[in-house]
Amino acid sequence: MRDLDIPIPKTTKFQDVMRVDLEIKGLNVSRVAIGLSAVIEETDGTKSYWALRHPPGPPDFHHPNCFTARLPAFGAS
User: Fold this and answer.
1) What is the pTM assigned to this prediction?
2) What is the number of alpha carbons within 13 Å of residue 44 lying toward its C-beta?
3) Sequence spans of domains, the chain
4) Comparing C-alpha atoms, which of 11, 9, 8, 5 is closest to residue 27?
């Protein structure tokens, strides 16, 4: 597992939905696992932690269990 040097994603807000577009280049692997996560802070300071999957215990977005989204290899069906 390693961090990628990627450009800042383009974000667009539609009412209560946010779209995030990002370009990833230079991956030389057959499949990629992605962990989508967010920390949301409300105006009163309350924080909530969101992910596709959480491991047991406190939030840990670097835990391998969080990486559940998969991308097929480019050109694969």
Assistant:
1) 0.53
2) 2
3) 10-71
4) 5
